[in-house]
Amino acid sequence: MFESAEIGHAVDDDTYKAAVPALRQALLQAQYELKEQGGFPVIVLINGIEGAGKGETVKLLSEWMDPRLIEVRTFDQQTDEELAHPPAWRYWRQLPAKGRIGVFFGNWYSQMIQGRVHGRFKDAVLDQAIGEAERLEQMLCDEGALIFKFWFHLSKHQMKHRLKTLKDDPLHSWRISPLDWQQSKTYDRFVRYGERVLRRTSREYAPWHVIEGQDSNYRSLAFGNILLEGLQARLKAPARGVQQATPPLGSSLDERTVLDALDLTHALSKADYHQQLIQEQARLATLLRDKRMRRHALVAVFEGNDAAGKGGAIRRVAAALDPRQYHIVSIAAPTQEELAQPYLWRFWRHIPAKGQFTVFDRSWYGRVLVERVEGFCEPVDWLRAYSEINDFEQQLTEAGIVVVKFWLAIDKQTQLERFNEREETPFKRYKITEDDWRNREKWDDYRAAVGDMVDRTSTEIAPWTLVEANDKRWARVKVLRTLNDALEKAFSKHD
Amino acid sequence: MFESAEIGHAVDDDTYKAAVPALRQALLQAQYELKEQGGFPVIVLINGIEGAGKGETVKLLSEWMDPRLIEVRTFDQQTDEELAHPPAWRYWRQLPAKGRIGVFFGNWYSQMIQGRVHGRFKDAVLDQAIGEAERLEQMLCDEGALIFKFWFHLSKHQMKHRLKTLKDDPLHSWRISPLDWQQSKTYDRFVRYGERVLRRTSREYAPWHVIEGQDSNYRSLAFGNILLEGLQARLKAPARGVQQATPPLGSSLDERTVLDALDLTHALSKADYHQQLIQEQARLATLLRDKRMRRHALVAVFEGNDAAGKGGAIRRVAAALDPRQYHIVSIAAPTQEELAQPYLWRFWRHIPAKGQFTVFDRSWYGRVLVERVEGFCEPVDWLRAYSEINDFEQQLTEAGIVVVKFWLAIDKQTQLERFNEREETPFKRYKITEDDWRNREKWDDYRAAVGDMVDRTSTEIAPWTLVEANDKRWARVKVLRTLNDALEKAFSKHD
Question: A136 vs chain B: nearest CA distance in angstroms?
């Protein structure tokens, strides 16, 4: 894999000087087209052997192109806020917006290769990390990102020589930290695991580019050309890649969904309700104060039919708690900043830190519900959303976050009664809009979407709870009890 | 100041129960109007004696109103990201957007009172903190925020009794941390310094409300009523308070400004330029790697005439450095999220952490330049901006941030030549737009605005550097040299 990057590629100074002006101008031109189009973000991952010119090349990039449109990010030591979130959170918060270029040093590949080289974990964990990187990049590309992955290479002999030269040069000696030197000893391991990673993660949508780092002229031109060609090709491509024909999900033979299995007659008497509500609220308050909560976080997702009582259920959950213990995030139309990012970005930014509890009033399931039914996105987008969401929730649960998802279900007649009541009560009128009536006409489409959503995203780690919500009391108690059971189950693993 | 909050206010249960439903409905109504209008943010500061029902009252608020539109924030221990920024940064990042309510526990008042009570500083520092709080609140109100400041009070006797009751109640005993108990001993100091703070910071635009906390019925109704009246009054007020007549800045007798004192014939030969540029670039690279940099950060602000060469100067600064060492922030039209916040919010979010360097390509001075000249804001807004900006920069410099501000000045003829050159060079055409020509017609207005800006915001802690930029070489070297001198001066204070 690295063979052709150890053969002493070089470009003489005259050739280099002749080539650079046109390359620069073309890169700058591409950068401005990118900015004007604002159509996609560019992510440049920088990896490779120490001393192979990674830093110099990125510096050159900032000189050649407009540095105001480039963000260079280094992921060293995690801050305590980063440590309190799932590992991917730090990358999500630094993603470049559409029209901009983000250069990532110390990215997910650096983390996984160094972890393996220094023996912090075995191949199985490395392969897990590889799988996660693949899914992340696939998702980013599906969302429109253009990803370049560069590996700057040196042979062992070249590296030793290069590090010695740098060390002897007073202008550069500060660059070499003790850790870097140590790497000279671990070169073999670094290359071996690097090879494994490159082999597994070089995919058609985001291939690796290996560049020999010995000769700076060669290195710079090779890097610039790859970047330019990739940018130009993408800028010329149609706004959206050719839509792949997506296989249909398959229609149900009898149109029965999980919703049909619900017994919507469930109800609680007023007395039972008050007793059970208070009991479950006290239980939730106690669980959230439990010291085992410090190793977890809680995410509650509320989806449901219009007028199913999401707001009321959320208020009963909140009423159990000190308001300092939770945040409620209402998902509405995305802002400009959110639209300039991949779909899941707007949810990642609200993921709670350890010890915290966040309620999502509507959620990332909007893509497979309202966006699917209303045609706000292409079928290929909501079809891939199922697995992206499952990946996302897996990352949350692996970081100790307990994910509880509610679908509050009512029947069509109950919805009609509640809509009418809202229109008749001055105080509730703000709750009902034209949209609600329009959505109601698509009752069956939503029903099918909910069925698919539950089938495809109700997982052992983050199951859906269907809540019979014709009776509000029943629904509120069931919501609280489910949250409590989920927390207790998570805590019990510590015993 | 607290006398009338120690007289045993109470409301009987029947009266309370009769009053609550209407209050709740009115609060909810006001909250939805606030959301619909989206016109201003509401900030509720919660302070007072331990055990006076602060937490219970906020909890009640979340029950009475829609908790999805309320954000409750607690400012305890600072995270390491917060510690690496100026003290006010943590408040700025948590400000509620327009249309929402932010409830702040552990806010700036808690910090200053507790610091003084526990003897971490003396009255002089307390008074400084008071002054900062006043300026912050004045600015927030000028930007449209509605601020409520609540002090929940108990007499010493009431407090002791209340803490004992809470301690004996198994359901509540967890609430009392050792520190809180300790406060019972420091009650006198807490009240003394609290009084000092309230006296000094109760202003017409954000008065304090002292509420006796003994009786929960009284406390809840008093709190709810104050909130309701304040919200309703503000919702009924005209979109913008009556514009105060603002005194004019005074016109200059001879129309001479600081810009007239510049000698725009300064120039560097190519040879001198190359030698000096490399020298200053190396100096900057060395200074930023100096270990004293860890206690500082660097902010460079670039403003100037169109075509004065800001971009080129910034590139020469960037070229000196490893791209991991700096961020460049280009200020363009604000996003929706930025528009929903006070003006300075969009800059606070980019302020560098300790050890970092941020370049602002255009900046917070937009308000007193383009917004003033183009009439994008009212005179009262840009007139108050001078002191707000001075406060802002003082907060930065007090946190160790070195603030360097450049105005790149060219004459009108030079601008014309550069505009023409841009139009004639295909490669530079993206740099010139209709706006540039329009701005040029307002040359004299901009000139006056720059004169006022320099007069009013060139301070010892953050002086303006006027850069003679007819000669680009001269300008670039001067920019680099000024940055270096500023850093060296800051570092020299450690010797």
Answer: 24
Amino acid at A247: P
Q: Do A55 and B324 touch (CB under 8 A)?
A: yes
Distance CA B299, CA B351 (A): 8
Digit-coded pLDDT (tens) for B356-367: 999 999 999 999
The partner residues of B105 in beta bridges, in order of sequence, read B74
Residues linked to residue B48 through DSSP beta bridges, in sequence order: B152
Between CA B257 and CA B181 the distance in angstroms is 61
In a mutational test of the A interface, the residue from B315, B321, B346, B362 whose CB has the highest number of chain A CBs within 10 Å is: B315
Neighbours of B457 (CB within 10 A): 20
Segments of chain A with pLDDT less than 70: 169-184, 238-254, 427, 495
- pLDDT for B81-96, tens place per residue? 899 999 999 999 999 9
- A63 CB neighbours in chain B (<8 A) are 315, 318-319
A353 contacts chain B (CB < 8 A): no
Q: How confident is the model at residue B15 (pLDDT cuts 50, 70, 90)?
A: very high
Q: Please answer whether residues A41 and A145 qualify as being in contact, where contact means their C-beta atoms are separated by less than 8 angstroms.
A: yes
Q: Using the predicted structure, report yes or no on whether residue B462 has a pLDDT greater than 90.
A: yes
Q: Residue B241: pLDDT above 60?
A: no
| A114 shares contact with chain B (CB less than 8 Å) | no
Question: How far, in Å, CA of B362 to CA of B453, rounded?
Answer: 14
Q: Which pair of structure tokens corresponds to residue B457? A: 């915001």
Measured CA distances, B456 to B348, B386, B437 (Å):
21, 6, 28
Whether B317 contacts B118, CB under 8 Å: no
The answer to whether the beta carbons of residues B353 and B85 sit under 8 Å apart is yes
Copy the structure tokens of residue B272.
């001198």
- Which residues in chain B are contacts of A319 at CB distance < 8 A? 59, 62-63
**B242 pLDDT above the threshold of 50:** no
B312 touching A, CB under 8 A?
A: no
* pLDDT score of A250: 61
Q: What pLDDT sits at residue A249?
A: 67
Given CB atoms, is A26 within the 8 Å cutoff of chain B? no
CA distances from B430 to A61, A224, A237, B302, B422 (A): 20, 22, 22, 20, 8
Q: Do B68 and A361 count as a contact with CB atoms less than 8 A apart?
A: yes
User: Above pLDDT 70, what percent of chain B?
Assistant: 93
Which candidate from B80, B103, B323 shows the least CB-CB separation from A62?
Answer: B323
Q: Which residues pair with B38 in a beta bridge?
A: none
Task: Work out the average pLDDT over B248-269.
Answer: 80
- Residue B27 pLDDT class (50, 70, 90 cuts): very high
| CA separation for the pair A204, A201 (Å, rounded) | 10
Q: Which residue has the tokens 């990012």?
A: A341
CA-CA distance, B187 to B181, in Å (whole number)? Answer: 10
Tell me the pLDDT tens digit for each residue of B173-229: 555 554 565 566 788 888 989 988 988 888 888 889 999 999 999 999 999 999 999
Distance CA B110, CA B97 (A): 23
What six digits make up the tokens of A95?
Answer: 């993603």
Q: Which amino acid is at A178?
A: P
The answer to whether A62 touches A70, Cβ cutoff 8 Å, is yes
In whole angstroms, give the CA distance from residue B11 to residue B13: 7
* Mean pLDDT, chain B, whole residue set: 89
Q: What is the mean pLDDT of residues B327-336?
A: 90
Q: Is A28 part of the contact surface with chain B (CB cutoff 8 Å)?
A: yes
Which residues on chain A are in Cβ contact (under 8 Å) with B334? none
Question: Chain B: residue nearest A74 by CA?
Answer: B324
Burial A328-365 (b: 16+ CB within 10 A, else e): bbebeeebeebebbbbbbbbbeebbbeebbbbbbbbbb
Residue B105 contacts A, CB cutoff 8 Å: yes
